[in-house]
């Protein structure tokens, strides 16, 4: 079962710079274990205490897996998994937002 995994820039050091890699697994957890076997260190950046890390977003065919079965989400041959780090923060001043009236 081949699953395409899109890798964000910040994790490409684990995939030798590859933007996409192929993996196998019946669930997202199995897919991450498979990726770990070929790209050591990547699973640790995605999973903590058996759950997806808080600031990592994972999409299965454009659906957020947090609204499916999380790390237990089932996968099928030909699926596409996208990993995106959550974007947050900023000072607000860069856009002229200071909080003052």
UniProtKB/TrEMBL annotation:
A Pfam family annotated for this chain is ThiS
Q: Which SUPFAM superfamilies match?
A: MoaD/ThiS
Q: What is this protein called?
A: MoaD/ThiS family protein
The protein's matches in PANTHER family, at most eight in alphabetical order, are given as: SULFUR CARRIER PROTEIN CYSO, SULFUR CARRIER PROTEIN SLR0821-RELATED
Organism in which the protein naturally occurs: Streptomyces meridianus
